[in-house]
Amino acid sequence: MGNISTAINAKQFLAATRLLVDTELDQLIPKETDDPARLHGAIRWSVFAGGKRFRPALVLAVGGTFSAATDQLLRTACAFEMIHTYSLIHDDLPSMDDDDLRRGRPTCHIKFGEATAILAGDALQALAFQTIAADETLSTEIRVRIIAELSRAAGTPSGMVSGQARDLDGESRTVDAAALDQIHLQKTGALICGAARCGATIGGANDDELEAVTGYGRNLGMLFQITDDLLDVTASASAMGKTPGKDARASKATYPAVHGIDATRRQIDAVRQSASGAAKSINRPAELLISIVDLIADRES
Amino acid sequence: MGNISTAINAKQFLAATRLLVDTELDQLIPKETDDPARLHGAIRWSVFAGGKRFRPALVLAVGGTFSAATDQLLRTACAFEMIHTYSLIHDDLPSMDDDDLRRGRPTCHIKFGEATAILAGDALQALAFQTIAADETLSTEIRVRIIAELSRAAGTPSGMVSGQARDLDGESRTVDAAALDQIHLQKTGALICGAARCGATIGGANDDELEAVTGYGRNLGMLFQITDDLLDVTASASAMGKTPGKDARASKATYPAVHGIDATRRQIDAVRQSASGAAKSINRPAELLISIVDLIADRES
């Protein structure tokens, strides 16, 4: 398999990688006919719920920019999606965000019960690390680096789970601009930045290149979360596939709530420029990476 | 650091490894003064709740039997304890076993709330893999093998989470002897057997030796769970530190429920013999490993 990042349009690239990633995920995840069938059914219900596969696409796009073969990127891409999906399953639980619907379908715990949903998330996290450990297209050195990166991005004190914990704490007290940035950088940004960095690592990026990719990933993660906050205020329910305005009702710390809508739009422009600038500084063909920035900045859902 | 498995008495060995493991866990886990403080407090509440550190001791005992240095075993030992602790936190949740007390103290969700308890478990699982990935006392080849082993033992379709899922399914239907063995082998046995195998792997065991260790670990895991089932029926609350009889009221599939108490005692003897026999077949000094079998078989809590 070659690499598919020569297509420079982000929308086409996401569509193409989604097919690849879905096929690979189907191979990696136990069948729902295999015991324990209910658990595997719950995992598949959430993994194959129509996600955009944005984090896997980022592994593939950045890796491809560094000329890595798609075949070497694909399992790592799937591992990021497994971690992302487990986090959605647990986020939706009654004691967390208490969401009944995601992408217009019942959430995992509504469909399979809370206990099975908790276990489905737990199993997906284990499977993510198992997938990378077993990826024989990568040297053991690279596998260890990817696992270190993914576990840091997923955990605490500076990864996704710590971002969630800070977000929870924020519901009961006032969050200032700096605290909000930290929530966003960790809750959403850590995994997005980690996906970019892992693509670069598999592609053999040197330290300077990895630093440029980190700047790209951090800003792209921030852009993703700020646009998400804004869409929650401005978008229609049908465009979002979920109920808008939910963040405000849950007293979530969001950009519009802390900064206002106009300042949020200006911040989106600034972060967009930073992300594109970081992409250009990588000194590799950066059209696709910039196109991804534009796609996120201009998204309507 | 040398290796501490020359002490052949299992009780002394567990006490000695507990000190080592607790000191290392304290280094590996973020401080509760570090943000997000509530999350880290919840993790530490559950990790330092007075556990026996049985799985870490098994990594150290089997590894020591194969002459591995304690220093090379210690992080892997801690990683197994992190996975074990996360599973206890999630098991205790209201939608799972709904336990308010563990070892005489409030469970994590009672003390810190359900959302934080879910996140604490999630973070501990990530930290387990991060710990092994970062263990520079081990070659990258060994680290990848340990991560593969731990993730398989923790996940699905044949690890701890699938055992939990089978156990849940069993609450709503009759469980026969074969299904019960599978629940026990996965729910408790997978992590115990995995701990033994990882110790052997770090100690450089060859395939035949690893197979003998697997037999030891499987039987020891079974012994651990069957004695646990029996204690739930026969032990006093003060000896157990938790409420006996809880399994029966929760319609849990247990050995006494499926086979009766006399047959359970005979099964304990049989599994004990198998575990000791497997230990002797390793062709290394096996006194400590046999002493561990005896300790579990004769335990009163």
Describe this structure in words.
Chain A is mainly α. The first copy, chain A, has a single domain, classed as Farnesyl Diphosphate Synthase, CATH 1.10.600. Helices cover 71% and strands 1% of the residues of chain A. Chain A is built from 15 helices and two strands. In chain A, strands 1-2 form a two-stranded antiparallel sheet. In chain A, helix 10 runs antiparallel to helix 14. The longest helix of chain A is centred in the last third of the chain and has 28 residues, at 207-234. Chain A is globular and about 45 Å long. The first copy, chain A, starts with 9 loop residues before the first helix and ends with a helix. Chains A and B meet through helix 2, helix 4, helix 6, helix 7 and helix 8 of A and helix 2, helix 4, helix 6, helix 7 and helix 8 of B.
Give me the secondary-structure topology.
Two copies of one chain form a homodimer.
Chain A: H1 10-28, H2 37-47, H3 54-65, H4 70-91, E1 101-102, E2 105-106, H5 108-112, H6 114-133, H7 140-154, H8 160-170, H9 177-202, H10 207-234, H11 237-240, H12 246-249, H13 255-259, H14 261-280, H15 287-297
Antiparallel strand pairs in A: 1-2
Q: What is the N-to-C succession of helices and strands of chain A?
A: HHHHEEHHHHHHHHHHH
Rg of chain A (CA only)? 18 Å
Spans where pLDDT lies below 50 across 5 or more residues of chain A? none
Separate helix tally of chain A: 15
CATH topology-level name of chain A: Farnesyl Diphosphate Synthase
Largest interface: A-B, 53 and 53 residues
Percentage of residues in DSSP E strands of chain A: under 5%
Question: What is the strand tally of chain A?
Answer: 2
The CATH top-level class label of chain A: Mainly Alpha
